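Quick log. Single chain, no ligands specified.
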Amino acid sequence: MATLILVRHGRSTANTSGVLAGRTPGVALDERGAAQAAALPGRLAGVPLAAVVSSPLQRCRETVRPLLDARPGLQLHTEQRISECDYGDWSGRKLAELMDEPLMQVVQAHASAAAFPGGESMRAMQARAVDAVRDWNERIEAEHGEDAVYAMCSHGDIIKALVADALGLHLDLFQRIQVDPCSLTVIRYTRLRPFLVRLGDTGDLAGLAPRETREDDGGAAEVGGGAGAP
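-> predicted structure:
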């Protein structure tokens, strides 16, 4: 079946301000995020892409725009099912404030039991994303052949949930996975099992430096957490 390149959107204004954006409209890439997006065509230059699929949210559409501009014949498809988790009443709140909520411990340690007030459960988030990928795998293979490669731009928690599914990992363990802004995660699907080919590839190892000696990448601005989040 198809090979899927999962692209987390570039660093956003919500990432740097420590806000849980969720589906809040108007959240754009910040300056660094725009630079990350601009570098994406070069990083994928050697890969023949059959299609690009994106979450409808602005930060994802901005991330794939340079790639589409560099490949005028490449079509963009919008997929609602890979949109950010619906955090409901938590959307737009500071992560530092949310850390005091009892539900946050559930999100971190028992994600399959977590449901956001006024929003959706993490189980529902994973289920819709997995269904979307399965459908797109079939469509891409039918239209472009079983060796086709396509890109999908989405969000940290969505990508981590898809990786967990590919590895046969319970959702309760998905917080052990980290994907930084504009990182690439590659899953090759076959008839019997998926293979994780790349995970959170940013092209450098700067993220391994001690936190106090490196520039913060904003990776913690999702409930799934990132560097420095519990």
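Confidence is low (pLDDT under 50) at residues 226-230.
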